C-alpha cells in the first residue's frame, strides 16, 4: 500500500529531518516508533501529502504523491496537533469534513457521521460545541474525521495523546479491527501503543530508519545487553543511574535491570529483554552509550 524510496527531507539552513528513508508498509498495522524529534511527524506529513520530500519518491497504492487528487480519498490522517473549530458541534464538524471528502449525499453523510460518533464514544456529546470538549474528546473527534469514508490507508500521529487508559485501549482495538484489510501506520513514542496491536514496527532515530521488522526482532535488540542485579540500598545509591533501566524493592535489597555491553555490576546475570528494553537498547547503541 505505501512504498517509500530513498526519501530525505531538509529544512532551511541545511538541517536534516529525514535521511534516505526506504520502507514498504502493507496491509495490517505497523508502528512507527521513535523518540520525540526523530522525524516521525515529518514522515507522516509527507505520506499524508501535506509536505514534499527534498528527494526520493512515495507511492500510495502505486500512485505517486505528485497526483494528490487520485489518492486523497484513499487516505485518512490524524495529525499530532489536531485543531478543531470551537464554535461548531462535533456532529456538524464531521458532516463538514465528510462533504469535503466527497460524501455528497446528506443521507450518506448522516449515516457515516452517526456510525463514527458511536465508534469513538461521542454520541452523548455530539451536539455540544467543541469549545466545551476536553482534550481527550477533541482527540476522539480527530480520530473520527480520519476514519470518514473508510480510507484504505490510515495515518495516525501520536493518536493516544490525551486519552485516558480505557479510551486508549478502546482506540487501539478499533485500529486493529480496521487494519485487517487496510494499511494503518501508527506513529508513537510509547512502546505500549504498539505492543499488543501492531504486527510490524519501524524505528526512527535522528531522521534515520534504524530498524524495520517484527516486534520479536525489536525485542531481540536487547538480547545480550540486559542484566539484572540484586543490590543493597547502599550499592543502589552508589550505582550509575544512567545504567539502571528499572528497579524495584524486595525486602532489604533492590532488584535492578540494566542495559550494558558488559557485566555492569558484580553479581549481575544476563536476562531476556522485554519489548521496551529491546527498543531502549537499540536507541542506546545508536547513541554509542
UniProtKB/TrEMBL annotation:
InterPro entries listed in its UniProt record: AAA+_ATPase, ABC_transporter-like_ATP-bd, ABC_transporter-like_CS, P-loop_NTPase
Record's keyword terms, sorted: ATP-binding, Nucleotide-binding, Transport
Coiled-coil segments: none
Keyword ATP-binding (UniProt): yes
SMART domains: AAA
Domain ABC transporter: 2-231
Keyword Electron transport: no
Signal peptide span: none
One function term, GO molecular function aspect: ATP hydrolysis activity
Family: Belongs to the ABC transporter superfamily.
Protein name from the UniProt record: ABC transporter related protein
Lineage: Bacteria, Bacillati, Bacillota, Bacilli, Bacillales
